[in-house]
Design brief:
about 675 residues, alpha/beta, 10-stranded mixed sheet, 4-stranded antiparallel sheet, 24 helices, about 40% helix, about 10% strand
Length: about 675
């Protein structure tokens, strides 16, 4: 319940005294708050008479009264430690003087010696001192809102009023009214480090959100304890089988609110499609956050992913490769993908215009009225983009970032430091949204976050690489109040990724003919012969290597593809290039075999039997039953592998089945990554 201020108490007194009782009632009402000290003084004097009658000249009573006086004074001093020093001292002096006089009067008599004079001078003096204190509590000249105990004045925000406050278990929010013409929200920004020091909290625990309608109002948020210090596992797909227009859950804020990304625009919400800059130093958890976002994306029904990582190749994108339509894991393929994107933009915008769409909406992915196949959303994700920019051109993404949104394409550029030496300022300005992890210093933070976000209290340079996963999301669709609020990206186990890639394989969209034809024309065999990766558990055969990866030292040249098409194209109604052409001339005569070399006998492999999901679940249940019979409670995927030879299954198949058992409640996660607790059948949800 909010505490009543002296001003409010005064107003209540005036309202209560405004009845129809006349002057007598008014005077009595105004005197009542001042009566308690006088009544206490009079009561002390009257109580001394019977006390003297019983304890006169009694040595034991004298000792007891003296000890009681000392004890009362000590208790008053101890109880007053939560109040101001002035009030504590005043209370202790009053109790000490009153109890000492009462002890002396009880033994010697109220009128003995100077006791009578001391009473008639001391009692009124003490009562008046408390009356004066009560009167001075109401100061009409003071600035209201002094509930901060003078803290705001100490940090340079004198005369600032706290108009409203909200206190939660680990979050306090204060609405500030700054003195007009004297202070602005910039002054609050400058004072935040001092506030953090005064409150003994981390620097980024104090944040400020300016009022967009007034430079003299702001909201101050203080979060004393870090609730993100424990790793948060990925909770599973937020919209399984849904649209990419639904929010993509990637992280969690300190108050438990999920952090989300919106890739397509929404005309109803007046929100544009998003291009995203992802930035963070080595060890900040940037790649793990990207894996979580892409894992969410590949569980949707109307989006196609093109992804590039010419540095780490399969190290980061490996689990997701079966769900990615085009994975460019070397420089030549990456450069070809960029050319394909440039060609796809006008082709896709022409298709949207033909069917009356001003921007991509989920209806675009459905079959159109004339029977034409739909066009899914296209997400182009470039990991380690600094290498791509360095070996291509600093403006390589500028045109795409300026034009792709209208074509139903979102561009994601991920790199460690988005300085002007790494990425064009034109590109950085066109990306619009940012997902910033820990960085080395405040200068680096300025490459990803706007000045107003940093002024509001965002400090990614405080984390550096010491808090992996901590991040700020400044993106379309996210309220400004969350821009400077720390979040932590989910940690996605490999088993979850395998399960999602496998489970939603039949749900995911295929690339539309319009984008396919444009990409084939621009990228040639880099696109038409791109490596397709098998789903987890479907085969142990490694994916076919892209034959162009052995020429990574040669820059991609679109003229190479022109030569290729000149040599291999067929003429047809759809134009000079046939995307189904595999470079083989069916009219060419096959030469006769002249010599056969037998190197070794081909091993006779037993064909792997395909089993249904129900059979797979039954196989895993049988293995779990064996573990329970052995008395085991904790298992790892490697433990299953030792038993899965009987089914001829791979590790990826086992991982997907482990994830399914977790979803079914048969296994439960522990604090250790890759270790799971067996939940008995009668206990499973």
């Amino acid at each position: 319940m909010p505490q009543t201020t002296p001003e409010q108490l005064h107003e209540e007194q005036l309202r209560a005294a405004s009845g129809s009782g006349g002057v007598r009632e008014y005077l009595l009402h105004r005197v009542k708050p001042h009566l308690p000290p006088w009544l206490a003084g009079a009561g002390t004097g009257l109580a001394s008479l019977p006390a003297h009658y019983y304890w006169a000249n009694n040595a034991a009573a004298a000792a007891g009264l003296t000890l009681a006086s000392v004890a009362l004074t000590g208790v008053t001093w101890w109880a007053g430690k939560a109040t101001t020093q002035q009030r504590r001292l005043h209370s202790a002096i009053t109790i000490a003087a009153s109890s000492t006089w009462f002890a002396a009067a009880a033994i010697a008599g109220p009128d003995a010696g100077p006791l009578g004079g001391l009473y008639f001078m001391g009692a009124p003096a003490l009562a008046l001192s408390w009356n004066i204190r009560l009167v001075l509590r109401r100061n009409p000249d003071a600035t209201p809102g002094g509930a901060d105990g003078g803290l705001l004045e100490k940090v340079g925000l004198a005369k600032t009023q706290i108009t409203r406050s909200t206190v939660a278990p680990n979050k306090a929010t204060f609405d500030l009214q700054l003195p007009r013409g004297e202070l602005t929200t910039d002054d609050v920004t400058k004072a935040m480090p001092l506030l953090a020091s005064a409150l003994d909290v981390p620097k980024n625990a104090v944040r400020m959100t300016p009022d967009p309608d007034s430079a003299s109002r702001a909201q101050l948020t203080i979060v004393p304890h870090d609730l993100l210090k424990n790793t948060v596992p990925y909770p599973g797909p937020s919209h399984p089988g849904g649209s990419i227009a639904d929010p993509v859950h990637t992280s969690i804020y300190e108050d438990g609110t999920p952090g989300v990304l919106y890739f397509p625009g929404d005309p109803d919400e007046n929100r544009n499609a998003m291009h995203l800059l992802v930035m963070g130093m080595t060890g900040s958890g940037k790649s793990e956050g990207g894996i979580t976002a892409l894992t969410e994306v590949v569980s949707r029904r109307d989006v196609v992913v093109w992804a590039s990582d010419p540095v780490k190749a399969e190290q980061v994108l490996g689990p997701l490769l079966p769900a990615i339509d085009w994975a460019a894991l070397d420089m030549k393929s990456t450069q070809a993908m960029i050319e394909a994107l440039k060609a796809a933009i006008p082709a896709r915008t022409a298709w949207l215009a033909k069917y009356g769409y001003k921007q991509w909406v989920p209806e675009c992915a459905e079959t159109q009225a004339d029977g034409s196949p739909g066009m899914p959303y296209l997400l182009a994700w470039f990991e380690e983009a600094a290498k791509t920019i360095r070996e291509t051109d600093e403006e390589v993404f500028t045109g795409i970032s300026q034009e792709a949104r209208s074509a139903g394409i979102s561009l994601v550029v991920s790199l460690q430091r988005a300085s002007h030496t790494q990425i064009s300022t034109n590109t950085r300005a066109s990306l619009g949204s940012s997902w910033c992890y820990g960085v080395r210093n405040d200068s680096d933070a300025g490459f990803a976050l706007d000045d107003e976000v940093l002024d509001a209290g965002a400090c990614p340079h405080v984390w550096k690489d010491k808090k992996p996963g901590y991040c700020y999301l400044v993106a379309n669709g996210i309220p400004e109040t969350f821009w400077a609020t720390p979040a932590r990206s989910y940690l996605t186990p490999r088993e979850y990724t395998d399960w999602i890639v496998l489970t939603f394989a039949s749900t995911r969209a295929a690339l539309d003919p319009v984008t396919t034809k444009a990409a084939a024309r621009a990228a040639g065999r880099h696109f038409t012969q791109r490596t397709r990766y098998p789903l987890p558990g479907t085969t142990d055969t490694p994916p076919q290597e892209n034959t162009m990866t052995t020429y990574d030292h040669e820059p991609y040249d679109p003229a190479d593809e022109d030569d290729y098409r000149d040599e291999h194209e067929h003429q047809g109604d759809d134009g000079p290039y046939d995307e189904d052409d595999d470079g083989i001339d069916p009219e060419h005569e096959i030469p006769e075999v002249s010599h056969i070399v037998q190197l070794a006998e081909r091993p006779q492999e037993k064909p792997r039997e395909r089993i249904s999901p129900a059979q797979a679940r039954q196989a895993m249940e049988e293995i779990l039953d064996e573990f329970e019979a052995e008395g085991r409670t904790l298992v790892r995927p490697l433990d299953f592998m030792e038993h899965c030879d009987r089914h001829g299954r791979s590790r990826s198949w086992v991982s997907s089945q482990v994830a399914a058992l977790i979803m079914a409640g048969r296994l439960a996660e522990t604090g250790e990554i890759g270790e799971y607790l067996i939940v008995r059948d009668n206990e499973a949800a």
